[in-house]
Amino acid sequence: MKKEDHDIRHQRLPHEAHAHLPRRPSHDEFVHNVVRLIIASMPARRHGVAEIASSLSLGEQTFRRHIFAATGLAPKDFITSVQMREAARLLIDCQDVRIRDVGCRCGFDDASAFTNAFKKCYGMGPRQFRNLHNDEAE
User: Fold this and answer.
1) pLDDT by residue (tens digit) across 76-133?
2) Who's near 9: CB < 8 A, 6+ residues apart?
3) Number of domain units in the chain
């Protein structure tokens, strides 16, 4: 028997090597849980890194590593992206909700901070975004 054959037969297959370890949620499941926590905590302004990490029973550094590994984004940037996606959804789906109130629901204390963050993300203000999507729907 060749040495290479012996080495190959005694190596564990990837699924065998980790069979004894407890299974962790996939990155997708982790990100989904984080998104749910962020959205649920936005109106109360409790969606910072420390609060989200604590809600997941993780230390801040562990949370930072996990979210970066799963998304490629720093936690603050990921949280902002969730806020902006939720704001965009509300602007399109909830036409009767005032723009200022959309900002409040998404964790912004004042309308100008919301407008500036939204413009930075989408290249247009929330009113223009809503109008553009109203025109497309008609």
Assistant:
1) 999 999 999 999 999 999 999 999 999 999 999 889 999 999 999 999 999 999 999 8
2) none
3) 1
